[in-house]
Amino acid sequence: MAKDPIEQVQKKAAGRIALTERQQSVLRAVVEDYVMTAVPVGSKSLVGRHGLSVSSATVRSAMAELEALGLLSHPHTSAGRVPSDLGYRLYVESLMRESVLDRVDQLMIRHQFAQVQLTSNEWLRLAASILAASTSSAAVVTPARSRRAKFSHVQLVELADRSRLCVLVLGDGNVVQRRLDRGTMERLAAENPVSQTDLDLVAATLNADLPGLSAPQVRRRLSRLGPLAAHVAEVVAQVLEEADGIVVEEVFTDGISNVLEQPEFAQSAKLRRVLEVLRRSEFVEQLLPVLSRGQGVHVIIGHENTIDAMHEVSLVFAPYGEPDTALGVLGVLGPTRMPYPRAIPTVRYLATLMNELISTSHYGETHD
Amino acid sequence: MAKDPIEQVQKKAAGRIALTERQQSVLRAVVEDYVMTAVPVGSKSLVGRHGLSVSSATVRSAMAELEALGLLSHPHTSAGRVPSDLGYRLYVESLMRESVLDRVDQLMIRHQFAQVQLTSNEWLRLAASILAASTSSAAVVTPARSRRAKFSHVQLVELADRSRLCVLVLGDGNVVQRRLDRGTMERLAAENPVSQTDLDLVAATLNADLPGLSAPQVRRRLSRLGPLAAHVAEVVAQVLEEADGIVVEEVFTDGISNVLEQPEFAQSAKLRRVLEVLRRSEFVEQLLPVLSRGQGVHVIIGHENTIDAMHEVSLVFAPYGEPDTALGVLGVLGPTRMPYPRAIPTVRYLATLMNELISTSHYGETHD
DNA sequence: ATTAGCACTCTCGGCCATAGAGTGCTAACG
DNA sequence: CGTTAGCACTCTATGGCCGAGAGTGCTAAT
Lengths: 368, 368
Description:
2 copies of one chain form a homodimer. Chain A is an alpha+beta fold. The first copy, chain A, contains 15 helices and 11 strands. Chain A has helices at 5-16, 21-37, 43-50, 56-68, 85-95, 103-115, 120-135, 182-191, 196-209, 215-221, 227-245, 256-261, 268-279, 282-292, 340-361; strands at 72-73, 82-83, 138-141, 145-146, 151-158, 164-170, 175-179, 252-254, 298-301, 313-320, 326-335. In chain A, strands 3, 4, 8, 9, 10 and 11 form a 6-stranded antiparallel β-sheet that branches. A 3-stranded antiparallel β-sheet of chain A has the order 5-6-7. In chain A, β5 (151-158) and β6 form a beta hairpin. At the A-B interface, β5, β6, β7, α12 and α13 of A face β5, β6, β7, α12 and α13 of B. Chain A binds a DNA duplex through residues 40, 42-45, 54-58, 60-61, 63-64, 74-81.
């Protein structure tokens, strides 16, 4: 946790390499051409497309220098140049003309959120959908979760089939339902039949005693409670612990077919491995420590990723939500040949938008 | 709704075509070989693999007959035979030696469900995951939904930020949360500040009056209620209406990468269109009327599907849940070259298993 | 009715030649 | 000295060609 490989790579790329004016513009041009066309870019076609005021030979020598620095690479002698991961890194750090998102795009996104009567899961789904559509990449959004779950309110309901439902509201407004264990209930009921009135009484007791408490605090009160109340409180503690522990439980993804469209994944074998990682949400675990260190957009390019299967993709992610209350991540996944100047502002904007939504609603309605 | 193209195709295939004993076994062998190998199967290799007691020439003539009937087809003059959609249909209808699922597989599946403390959304996720894994196809599971939502119980909670949360338990045990509209609340509060006690009172009133009522019935009581209670009841009615209307809202899929693995989808272009349909859940709409007509497993092969993008895939689906209380669908999607003898029993078993789960729990915990 | 035999067809993989794009180097130029 | 034009070189991509192999359909014999 103290030092972090990704951070190191970033520092190295941003700090140590000094480029001449010309090298910079050549690198920028190569990256941007390649991102557009997916074809290795040669010196000649480059001067053509960009109307540079130098000849192809000059560009060639600049390219050779950039290659020596490890910023470009050669698929083979006599093909054009392709940016290396480090090249993309430098581009992202200092060459890219980054902007805030278009006013127009901002409004369009806002509009879509305003459109529907939404619960928070649907926000997430929508966020993923918007992200995928406007970056043409795969999008991933994890729900914002409490860091330290606290009890707020409980209610016990008897259902038609005589089973008991425990509806639990957490401090951050999350709501969790859990059925009470049938066996235990029957054991308790054997001594003393349990009516809805009893349930209400238990709920009232807990609602008076427990608000604001975390899992271990609830545990400590168990002994002071009657058997039924204790059983319910035990369930409460379990739920709180789960909410503490589970950082990622469900992840919303969208736009996988966008990635399929990319020529680098036309042979689906590579993509399979990426999808598998995505499906199992493994990479999110890796992401979390990085993201919790700081707000803002984080970019992980190709081999900077510690997961092998992800060596040919880039991630552009940002955390959202207030640290220590509710924190999730959202972002996009695409080939390293990613339109960073578009992806980064979009992710940033969506993260701030989600922040807004959370803070105005206090994450009130959740989990449909 | 009166007549249905898929049904017609089935009848035609099952009813009209009479095959000789030999033709049947050749067709069966071709289908099974092709499903295994994904390679067009020739007469010679076929007699080799199946140890038939006839020569390749005989098989050839049988193949020619089957081709004339439209059950097999020829990629080109001198390649082996491949089953047509109709060929698969006939195989599924009458040639396949279908069985119930292995005792062992049944237990393994049961075991996985028993493993975890699950809420119903996690059942669905797990069902999709199991289905995908044990058929090596993409799996789709839609939640079982009430047909006619009924009120059961409501609770009003004041959150830390002063917004009010309405927690609503439906007749089938589904739980929905909704935040109360802030503007309205403030308007009501201006005349008469609203305390948690007031909220409890309102909840108690509604819990006494409304249980068992459907949306229109709730609407009819609105006039008899006080302003705050009426506002809450209005929200209740809205939620009930939404639950009535929404047949499909979220769909759980899994195992997409399994389909990517299939050779027919190595060139990802075709798959893209399928994925797109899958993502937008379009096909489920098409599925629902068919499935609600009857219990049991339904198979839709290639061109039998009305959606163009799905002409190269087969669906094996079954409804689950009790009609008119809660009904969802689950099943798998794969290339037409699908291992039907495995997929069908698996889908069937999982559907009955879900039925069991629903009826024992009365669909109690849901929508975590 | 079945089978053996045979001529025919078509794909697939390897091989070669060619065209085209791009490079690296060198020598000339301002 | 940086820049540029020119040129030889390298490598890929493309298309044609050939032979092997697999499979078919037909016919004649059993």
